Amino acid sequence: MGCLATLTRGSMSLGKSDSDLPPDSVIQPEDIILQDSQRLISKYHDNSEDGFMQIWLALCSPFSVSTSLIQDTAQLVKENNVMLHTQLAETEAAGYNIGLAVNGSASNDCSNRIQEVRQSLLQQRLRYGAKIITAKHVIGYATTGSASV
Predict the structure, then answer these.
(1) Which value, to the nearest 10 degrees, does the dihedral of the CA atoms of residues 143, 132, 92, 122 take?
(2) How far is C-alpha 129 from the chain's CA centre?
(3) How far separated are the first and last CA of the chain, in Å rounded?
(4) pLDDT tens column, 15-40
(5) Residue 112 per-residue DSSP state
């Protein structure tokens, strides 16, 4: 008997003084982020088909990480065969598969996945327009997209 866990190593390299958020007190230098990400993958990630512990790398918003950190993290992900979690706009631009999920209670009051699908639809339409982001498109992210991730 065991417990299946997917843990993420979050990354923020740009703070208020660089990008207006987050506070400078919570950011880290990029070399430390990358070294610690590799340390966690090497120590804890089980890449076997029935592995119980997985480590994913998690970039925060595009306002709190540099382009070079996005690129270096993507390379680390490829080298170690782990997953990358980030916000939708960065994921789509990099050509990765997209899946929608529900975050924990820190950022979600009711764990309602269909509400997340609707919210994603509305947010992406603000940026890309209704002709590009259709309901079918976003439902695909939440179903077949999530299954492919």
Answers:
(1) -70
(2) 23
(3) 25
(4) 888 866 788 898 999 999 999 999 99
(5) -
